[in-house]
Amino acid sequence: xxxxxxTPLPMYEELRRRAAAGxxxxxxxxxxxxxxxxxxxxxxxxxxxxxxxDQLAGIRFASRHGLAGDARDLDAExxxxxxxxxxxxxxxxxxxxxxxxxxxxxxxxxxLDEGVRVVGLQPTTRQDAAPDFGGVDRVPTEALTVxxxxxxxxxxxxxxxxxxxxxxxxxxxxDGPVGPQCPASLLRDHPRxxxxxxxxxxxxxxxxxxxxx
Length: 213
Ligand code: GLP
Hints:
Elements: H1 9-20, E1 30-32, E2 35-37, H2 48-55, E3 63-65, H3 74-87, E4 92-95, E5 117-120, H4 123-133, E6 142-145, H5 148-153, E7 156-161, H6 167-174, E8 193-197
The chain binds 2-amino-2-deoxy-6-O-phosphono-alpha-D-glucopyranose.
């Protein structure tokens, strides 16, 4: 299960390079997308389906699944996706981290037992997306997201966090109280969680929580 955003762009570039060199064995893997804005078509350059199609160009999967944010019946679309997820135990989820502590589009207030659903986007999340849409007022107010229930049930989680703007969120994820005010904190006791971050993102963590160099 793969994320969007700026953070994983270098990773996708590397994956494309390896695929082109015949060094990426994804032919038997099934890809699920994590989330999608409501109202955008799969071809819309701002949609996450388009993002992943472009970022994964030249990489072959056994099958790929995305959320149709432009579906006429969004609840039915969520139910369809949840059924697919329930039939396919997820081996690995890659995640980014939002400034408000969200993962995928599981915004603050999200609970561990929630599934695929329509969510309202928080002001910081819409603000961060504003450059892609030419202004915050044009950013969709709602999105579809895979829920924490599915993410937490995955065999392995890999979270990518870079930049000083994410330092407070990373601090809240790892050092703050565990709770829905920081959805990422609800994942921190996952038995196989790997966090990859740079020094800037880690700058609010206390030294005792940083791994030995
Ligand atoms: C959006 C996406 C998330 C992503 C986050 C961080 O909110 N729904 O899946 O992790 O942005 O994006 P970036 O890496 O650009 O900071």
